[in-house]
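Support request, please re-run this one:
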Amino acid sequence: MVKRVLTIDDSKTIRDMLAFTLGRAGFEFVQAVDGQKGLEAARADGFDVIITDINMPVMDGITFIREARRLPHCKATPILVLTTETSDEKKAQARQAGATGWIVKPFDPAKLLAVIAKVSP
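Re-run finished. Output below.
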């Protein structure tokens, strides 16, 4: 069964890199440009993994994670943070909100796929 991934990032370059990486690896994916659009996608459908940025307009990634965790079908979905942020405070906020893991941009496609395989075998 093909795994479905929701990616949320306001950067077109990162969305394109994620699309290329996930598409080549055989994933189905949906992309959103901010946390609000990501939350709408998460409400409408289920995903095997969610990858979200932190700093975005409209709704940031921390708020998205908190809201997504309130959705019954997202309570156990792995949520990975993909961001340029490296502060321990932001990592702690993401963990407290319900993030599963943290990856710093720019990302290595092989490492990203390895993390996805680890959190969603």
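The CA atoms of residues 49 and 77 lie 6 Å apart. The two ends are 12 Å apart (CA to CA).
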